[in-house]
Amino acid sequence: MAVSRRAFLRAGAAAAAALGPAPLSAQGKGRVRLAYLQLGWAATEIIHKEDLLGKRGWQAEYSIVPGAPGPLLNQLASKNVDAIDMSFALAAKAFEDGVPLRVTGVATAVLGAIVARKDAGLARVEDLKGRKIAAIVGTSTFFDIKALTLKGYGLDLQKDTQIVTATAPPDMVTLLAKKDVDAIIAWQPITDAVVFRGEGVYLAKQIDLWRKATGRPTGFPVHVCYLVHGEFLQKHPAIARDLNEAQRDAVDVWYNKPARAMEIVQEVTKLPADVVQVAHRETVRMLSGLPDEQVDTLIVQLKLNKEFGFLKSEIWDTPDRIRREFFYQV
């Protein structure tokens, strides 16, 4: 039967109305470029491989960045990407150096640890005095653990021990294996790999150092957070909520679908399956969102980092300014 074009269009419109609004993913919120560290260990891998931003209406482009966090921060500062995962302490350092970023959410609790060589005869943190310790001195993990051991144990890692400077995590692993050092200061999943192979034992985890130094038995200090460039956030404020919700779903996969989570992590990190299994089990806590109680803990972290010299700006002395200028809470 012949149907006029006008009647055809009317019928199509009626059918569309009956079906309801188009799915969010089809409506589109624009393009967002999310980059993350290959060994960031923040569940961002799951956001990528499950396209959890795409499912919220974004045309998402994901980039995996190997190596140290510095180049990833530079990508955000130069606006080559719109959002990244990043060490919380390094995010604060970049902010006080003038990078127009905002912390929109958290990703994972502290990942650091002091791992002793198995046959080094180390049983307590205090036993590190005078010993050789490998560390990447410029990392936030080293600065955090240095501050926590000084506050909690009165041990200054840079004065009371012999720090052997490494340039990358594999260097520390090699130094420990060759018995050139007695311990390493590193983070997951590198620490887990060393322990799994039987070359080292956990002397102290960063979460335990935090509990002792601050006297805060609850709450989780943060290692990795999400940063969004200020200009992008101003134009696309919806990204803050959507990125937090994507992280929430990724955390749900992490805990409730562990086989899928580990499959994704192994694909991205290229680590052996058995190492990924250990690291998954040893992870302190995957996190999401930016609730007020989490912000309170983060402010304590910032104060501690300034107290021991890693941060310099006076903004870290004013919680109201931190909440207003550094964080972006939906």
Task: State the main characteristics.
330 residues; alpha/beta; D-Maltodextrin-Binding Protein, domain 2; five-stranded mixed sheet; 16 helices; 10 strands; globular; disordered N terminus
Biggest pleated-sheet summary: 5 strands, mixed
How much of the sequence is in beta strands? 15-25%
- Name given to the CATH homologous superfamily of the largest domain: Periplasmic binding protein-like II
**CATH architecture label name of the largest domain:** 3-Layer(aba) Sandwich
Topology pattern, helix = H, strand = E: HHEHEHEHEEEHHEHEHEHEHHHHHH
Which structural class fits the helix and strand makeup?
A: alpha/beta
Strand order of the largest sheet: 2-1-3-10-4
So what's the CATH class of the largest domain?
Answer: Alpha Beta
Q: Give the C-alpha Rg.
A: 23 Å
The average pLDDT value, as a whole number, equals 90
Instruction: Write down the oligomeric state.
Output: single chain
Globally, the shape reads: globular
Low-confidence region ranges: 1-26
Q: Tell me the number of helical segments per DSSP (H or I, 4 or more residues long).
A: 16
- CATH topology of the largest domain, by name, is D-Maltodextrin-Binding Protein, domain 2
User: How many beta-strand runs?
Assistant: 10
Terminal CA distance: 55 Å
Which percent range fits the helix content?
Answer: 40-55%
Task: Give the count of structural domains.
Answer: 2
Description:
- With 330 residues, this protein is an alpha/beta fold.
- The protein has 2 domains: 26-110 and 220-326, 3-Layer(aba) Sandwich (D-Maltodextrin-Binding Protein, domain 2); 112-214, Periplasmic binding protein-like II (D-Maltodextrin-Binding Protein, domain 2), CATH 3.40.190.10.
- Helices cover 47% and strands 18% of the residues.
- The protein has helices at residues 5-19, 24-27, 44-49, 70-77, 88-96, 140-153, 157-160, 169-177, 190-196, 206-214, 230-235, 238-256, 258-269, 273-282, 292-307, 319-326; strands at 31-37, 59-65, 83-87, 101-109, 112-117, 132-135, 162-165, 183-187, 200-205, 222-229.
- It has a 5-stranded mixed β-sheet, with helices on both faces. A 5-stranded mixed β-sheet has the order 7-6-8-5-9, with helices on both faces.
- Helix 6 (140-153) packs across helix 10 and helix 9 crosses helix 14 (273-282).
- The radius of gyration is 23 Å and the shape is globular.
- Mean pLDDT is 90; it is low at 1-26.
